[in-house]
Amino acid sequence: MAMVCLSDFEAYAKKYLPKIAWDYFAAGADDCITRDENILAYKRIRFRPRMLRDVSVMDIRTKILGSEISFPVGIAPTGFHQLAWPDGEKSTARAARAMDTCYIASTYSTCTLEEISAAAPGGLRWFQLYIHRNRAASQQLVQRAEALGFQGLVLTADLPYTGKRRDDVRNGFRLPPHMKVKNLERAFEYGLPPNSLDPSVTWNDIYWLRSLTRLPIIIKGILTREDAELAVKHGVQGIIVSNHGGRQLDEGPATIDALVEVVEAVRGRVEVYVDGGIRKGSDVLKALALGAKCVFIGRPALWGLAYKGEKGLQDVLRILQDEFRLSMALAGCASVSEIGQHLVQFSRL
Amino acid sequence: MAMVCLSDFEAYAKKYLPKIAWDYFAAGADDCITRDENILAYKRIRFRPRMLRDVSVMDIRTKILGSEISFPVGIAPTGFHQLAWPDGEKSTARAARAMDTCYIASTYSTCTLEEISAAAPGGLRWFQLYIHRNRAASQQLVQRAEALGFQGLVLTADLPYTGKRRDDVRNGFRLPPHMKVKNLERAFEYGLPPNSLDPSVTWNDIYWLRSLTRLPIIIKGILTREDAELAVKHGVQGIIVSNHGGRQLDEGPATIDALVEVVEAVRGRVEVYVDGGIRKGSDVLKALALGAKCVFIGRPALWGLAYKGEKGLQDVLRILQDEFRLSMALAGCASVSEIGQHLVQFSRL
Amino acid sequence: MAMVCLSDFEAYAKKYLPKIAWDYFAAGADDCITRDENILAYKRIRFRPRMLRDVSVMDIRTKILGSEISFPVGIAPTGFHQLAWPDGEKSTARAARAMDTCYIASTYSTCTLEEISAAAPGGLRWFQLYIHRNRAASQQLVQRAEALGFQGLVLTADLPYTGKRRDDVRNGFRLPPHMKVKNLERAFEYGLPPNSLDPSVTWNDIYWLRSLTRLPIIIKGILTREDAELAVKHGVQGIIVSNHGGRQLDEGPATIDALVEVVEAVRGRVEVYVDGGIRKGSDVLKALALGAKCVFIGRPALWGLAYKGEKGLQDVLRILQDEFRLSMALAGCASVSEIGQHLVQFSRL
Amino acid sequence: MAMVCLSDFEAYAKKYLPKIAWDYFAAGADDCITRDENILAYKRIRFRPRMLRDVSVMDIRTKILGSEISFPVGIAPTGFHQLAWPDGEKSTARAARAMDTCYIASTYSTCTLEEISAAAPGGLRWFQLYIHRNRAASQQLVQRAEALGFQGLVLTADLPYTGKRRDDVRNGFRLPPHMKVKNLERAFEYGLPPNSLDPSVTWNDIYWLRSLTRLPIIIKGILTREDAELAVKHGVQGIIVSNHGGRQLDEGPATIDALVEVVEAVRGRVEVYVDGGIRKGSDVLKALALGAKCVFIGRPALWGLAYKGEKGLQDVLRILQDEFRLSMALAGCASVSEIGQHLVQFSRL
Known about the structure:
TIM Barrel; 8-stranded parallel β-sheet; about 40% helix; alpha/beta
């Protein structure tokens, strides 16, 4: 089976992963409308490609928060990578380093931050944080991440409670006994309690985080201009426009649609990223044309892991990279700096 | 079979109810376009969820016409509950009381108002009225309802004649011999005559009703700003935006679309409710964001009854309640009073 | 099999007619887009129904060009009724008279005008004319129709050449040997030559027709405001907005959409009718709300004939009549004069 | 099997061509969205047909760059005709001449320009050029074409690199060993190297081409007003609005949509043509109504070749010609000069 595009990896993962793991990764909230809209919304955007521009030398590198990456696609934080591949997040870290891009490790990793760091020393990594009712646990995580050389702190803002994912309820989803949410073992000696996340978190907690670390703070889960304005006002360094892959509030906006509104509100004061629905290189080009500095992929990374671990994820990233470079060239852009809003329009449909 | 969402109850009811009963409950007029639009119209509305608001303490209670209910979902008037469950409307009344919400009992109940009252003393109930050519019969019903402690009178305005429901015609639908429209047995000693409803009813009959009872009058079936204005002018206390579940005039507006226009016309002078198409908790949130004080569910209540009578209907209400609470929290609202139009937008599609 | 709505007759006809006849009646030009759009366009129109209006006495009668009919639905001109039922147009004439409405007999009838007249003396009938290269033949037809008591002359304007109906080409459609285009046997002694219609007809030929007859002239096939203006200017008495059932130029407008533009241009100076896509009584209500004085049905009449001849067509008309009356009542109109544009709106979809 | 419309030829070709050849001709880039949109976009355009205009004498001839053709449909440049029919481009040239229209021969022909010229002396032909890194090779081609009597030079602007056509990757598409890109055998003695095209081509290369030949230069692949303006400014004689049949950048605009913008920008200064999505005669009429001087067909020509070589392609052209003439007549136009924007409108859908 030739792996030509990302949906080939999706088909593979659906076929070979245990159903309970596939369902967990694929799950969206309620009717999965937002999950699917994330993809469909890209298809409503049309390119306005320009011709006869010298595209013989292509430069697809970019920088996020000052760090150069090989192309504007990073790995979004997703949990439980051991469900996809035995080495779990260690493989993810190695693949990201090999491809010279950024990996956002999740609080809910099945490897410790230490294991992740050791697996791929020198790789560009950010750490994704949920704030627990047990604030000390969160504080420890932040400080471990900083000490280990993680270069950004990503606060997830859209999960005061977990969304209702029907298949997970039907399957009675839980981690197999041999996997653990290892990062939290210190804080929660007797296992992770239900409802451990703190639903009382507010914007003021950005100041608390700021007091804990010198890392740049990126807020993830913003979908409106109002919240984008608040994020800037509270001093974050970056915003990830995200709806948690459609796993939280169903029938919120597709992220690529929300990106437009957020970019407009932010007016360049902080970097804006987007995740959700990226399935081919031209989706990356659209996101950048609409103002994203970089995109992050979630499920496609898991499909890559499920295919062949570190190597499979590299395959996924390499395909995206080739497709992104080609779509840039065909749209008439030789470097990322030439990408702009003039390249796209919203279709009538 | 796990009952996770309302469509699980729908599937159960479709499988286990006699076809003639399922068809009767499911029926829409003509091509069933409005019946289906009631649901589809919700899917064209997108949330604009807000992040990092303290949602640790959630308050989902509300009041309708001064009475507090546990959450803004009541039971719409539908006929013939014995078709769904042997105890019929007695089970409905018990479930509504157990869940601390309002039940609008139909003129076409298969239990008497007295049986309904006795089944769940103290429950909040309104009575739904059709005006018969035999005005004395209607007058008796109103006065019985008031005497029994019903706290509102709901006048159905959209049924001068019964809509054409093709499946009912094909099935030759009629009640099984052991079921009766019991509330009308006194008035029509020899059975309910065909065409017993009065198609000459006009707005002036609101004054007649007013002369019969001190109960607040709620008018059900309003779909335009013009009629909303007339309703307010004629002194009703509430309006239920409804198209009778798409069972009367096919190709009228979806109720959630009509709600916007009615709310705008009413300008807060009376309470506005809506029924039709509610299938998950986030639909309730959308209706409230667009100005409804409360929603009422019709078919989902019948599916709950068909599943396990009183207990099944409680299951349905509890799922809606949990989903509504969760969607509020994920949209950034800790209490019903924080819900507003800023939470939603109509999608381009 | 219960015949509850018009699609029941369609299903019957499709099952029992010879394929070549079904295909001929069902045919649309090219991709059949306009044929299908005629129906779909009705579904994009939503009612704004009004409540609590006295609809106890319903009056659905109307007048076309001064003649009263029992309800605003007539029989559009279609050819070759013997393909549907042995008695052909004689049955059509009897059914129309029995239902007290207007029948537009086609030039391409398989019965003579004399046979049609004799079958249902006193019925309201108009005669549909194609102008032949042999002008004398057309002149004779007009004068025979007038002499036989036909009360209107309908000039078809949209067939300078026959549209390309792929199935007819594949089937090699031609009338069976025992059927004839009887009205033209006098003019064309040796059979109807191919290309007998005159593609050079222009607006000035209206004056020629006017010189031949005192009958009111109705022009059929108008789809634009420009042509509507020209029709009025050339002195016609009525306009039928029609695209020939989608059998001529594919991808022209749906007739109900074109009606709006034509009615606006005509400003009440002549009567405007519409055909194409009428499948239920509420479609008639929509057409009248948008300014049509009356609608004409084509294929549904043929399905009725195919079902049971004269009786089957009466069934079709009676169903439409009942549905029209009911939809009027449910929309809050007690008489045709109360129908207006306020009753409808175009849906967002 | 009767060949009634172009999709009959498509079905034939899909059935009888080797899968690898069918896939190559049918291929679109990535998700094939633009390939399919080229067709769908035509279906969103509605005619506004005019009636009672004398269409007894139809004139469908037109001129492109001064040369008269029998109707405004030419043959777009496509590669590898021997994959469709053994005689390859020789058959194409003969069919185009027989039908008195223009054939744009591709650089990637499987016959030499000399063979093509000899096959149909006197036919109107343009030559399509890719600019190779080996500029001398391109220069030789231009000069051979001019010497052989080709009357226009078509520069393809949208292929700095080849688009990603998944099926070709899966199939490992390559020409069978007995076929050759014959025009380039002189320049590349040891076979065509990969990446032989020059991705550094810019607008200034138009001046270089101009220095090589006196032929009119037509630029192919323009999709935006900005590039249309640049094309005029750099002195081309014509523009072909094209997205390479959806084979290059997926999710660019449908060509018929881009045509509107290009025609507006060009303001009649040069001739504008369009290719992509033409499947019936009325599509040609739409393109002309929106300002195209002529259209070119790609895949339908290949289907015709696959059916019966030269004769099959003539069949395709003759069907298009008949359909175009008929649709003109039914829209009320007797000659190409009467076609204008008033004939069309974009549908609400």
